[in-house]
What we know:
By secondary structure, the chain is mostly helical. The protein has two domains: 9-42; 44-100. It contains four helices and two strands, in the order αβααβα. It has helices at residues 11-40, 47-55, 59-70, 90-100, and strands at 44-45, 88-89. It has a two-stranded antiparallel ribbon. The protein is elongated, with a radius of gyration of 23 Å. It starts with 10 loop residues before the first helix and ends in an 11-residue tail after the last helix. This is DUF771 domain-containing protein.
Amino acid sequence: MSERITVELSSKSIDKIVELLEPRVIAKLQSDRKTMIEDTVNRIINLNEFNKKYVKKTPDWIKQNIFYEFKPSWVEDIHPGKGKAFRIHEDEASQWMKEHRHEIDWNAKTI
């Protein structure tokens, strides 16, 4: 078992620690955000990956209530044909989903 140690710091000491750590924390957060954005740019995903990341509904529900309803430009072909995969541009899809999430009828039933 580890022993717990308590250290008392003055307000001045805490301010100095924050002053030293703040630039590092901000740089790390900015780097992580940049990496997350870069990970989606120019990336093509399929319907299953899009579903796992952004929707969590059935593929038929996504086709009916997002693709056919809104005809988003980030889906290369909303009618790819039997046996062909949807090609979804993730960076555009991610941004669109953020902007339009309130317009989607999340309680809609699949016909």
